[in-house]
Specification:
The protein is α+β, with helices and mostly antiparallel strands and 394 residues long. It contains twelve helices and 18 strands. 28% of the residues lie in helices and 26% in strands. It starts with 22 loop residues before the first strand and ends in a 5-residue tail after the last helix. It binds adenosine-5'-triphosphate and magnesium ion.
């Protein structure tokens, strides 16, 4: 279905047929699903989450939790029965599942856009079609392609086309000799080999686009990754040169436009040492680098996800505070949970924990956003918070 409802009008909360509540659904019950649910509930919607995990962060707080596999026909039928419209919190939802949901309900983003974003080769081709530069790369699906990889791709990074996240499903390949073992390590499936670039910085842009083509954007986020996982995002005036920021925003809007995208989309970029911009990848959903928008902007990325799904107006977000986000990984729970009381004594500290029952190394347990009137105060409290939590200096 193309519009939020058959008539193409907005889906307002609490205005469903027969006096029922309007329920919005989400495929996936992780932290992104949880923050979507929180934004939807705040606006008066009921929510339904489909996730096999009994203790999924979003499932725990949703009105309805359908505990089934993402391809389970019965589970999908229950989601359809409950919901007026359905979104996704992760790109690895099987395409046929989204297609079957989309045949009966408004689904945003659509199956076509998600199919591109869930495959690294397809997304790189999409970027190229948009005229946005990507790192030199080649597709590796066969032994012959392995042998034919050009010399210019080394040293490189071999990445599985699908299902990679937080640096998983990637192996660095120093030279040609390391390629075959790396491919075997990744299971010998469909991969991309891309040139390893010397990065001066990393940044990302989040946009929300409506079915009417209106596209609004957040400011450019500056991101620090550690071990392939986002560690710190900062967003304040002067953090990114304005010309570079304008280029990144324009490229992201073009990527969304050319996908006829509806929903929230994040594009990640590399900044090279000569100051040029290269696109890394995209995520067809709110993004970890946009969590600061909950506390530092007048409308969060999750509220825009709700609005885009429900066909409500998208307004240009206004950042009212300088912001820095620290990801809280399970590592910090060793040997015991951090003492958040001390951190919360800092001005502008906003704690978000996702309700995960078990901490593991590298697992995203929550995040801490620090807000301040300007960069000086922000960095002071952020550095103190990091020190108190045992997060390495940045
Ligand atoms: P996530 O899900 O956290 O975004 P991911 O598993 O999808 O991560 P990528 O975004 O492809 O993986 O890579 C993770 C990080 O590894 C990047 O943010 C960057 O720091 C580094 N990286 C990836 N590709 C390259 C490259 N071609 N050159 C240099 N560094 C790279
Ligand atoms: Mg990434």
């Amino acid at each position: 279905m193309s519009g939020p409802d058959a008539a193409g009008t907005s889906l307002l909360p609490g205005t469903g047929t027969n006096g029922q509540q309007t329920t919005l659904g989400v495929m996936g019950g992780g932290q992104l699903g949880r923050m979507f649910v929180q934004a939807a509930q705040r606006m008066g919607y009921f929510t339904a989450v489909l996730d096999p995990d009994v203790a999924s962060p979003a499932g725990l707080i949703s009105h309805y939790h359908i505990r089934s596999d993402y391809s389970d026909q019965q589970g999908l039928a229950q989601l359809i029965a409950r919901c007026a419209a359905i979104t996704t919190e992760f790109e690895n939802v099987p395409a046929p599942a989204l297609l079957s949901l989309g045949a009966q309900r408004h689904v945003a983003p659509g199956a076509d856009a998600v199919a591109v974003a869930q495959d690294r080769a397809l997304e790189k081709r999409h970027f190229a079609w948009c005229g946005v530069p990507v790192a030199a790369w080649t597709l590796i699906e066969t032994r012959a392609q392995l042998d034919g990889a050009s010399d210019e791709l080394f040293p490189g990074i071999l990445k599985t086309c699908r299902l990679g996240y937080d640096g998983k499903g990637q192996v660095r390949v120093a030279d040609r000799g390391a390629l075959a073992p790396a491919w075997a390590e990744l299971g010998g499936g469909r991969c991309v080999l891309e040139k390893q670039l010397a990065l001066a910085a990393e940044c990302s842009v989040i946009v929300a686009r409506g079915a009417d083509g209106v596209c609004v954007n957040y400011p450019v986020q500056s991101n620090l990754h550690r071990n392939g996982i986002l560690a710190v995002t900062s967003v304040y005036d002067g953090n990114i040169p304005s010309e570079l920021a304008a280029q990144a925003i324009a490229a992201t809007k073009l990527v969304a436009e050319k996908l006829q995208y509806v929903g929230v989309l994040c594009v990640e970029f590399f900044v090279l040492e000569d100051g040029s911009l290269v696109v890394n990848e995209m995520a067809p959903r709110p993004h970890n680098s946009g969590h600061y928008s909950i506390d530092a902007c007048d409308v969060s990325q999750f509220e825009l996800q709700v609005r885009a799904l429900a066909g409500l107006p998208l307004t240009q977000p206004r950042q009212h505070s300088a912001a820095l986000m620290l990801n809280l990984l399970g590592d910090l729970w060793e040997p015991r949970a951090p003492d958040f009381a001390q951190v919360l004594a800092l001005p502008g500290a906003h704690l978000h924990l996702y309700g995960k029952l078990q901490a593991r190394v590298g697992r995203k347990m929550g995040h801490l956003t620090l807000t301040a009137p300007g960069a000086g105060e922000l960095l002071e409290s952020a550095h103190t918070a990091a020190k108190l939590l045992g997060i390495a200096a940045f």
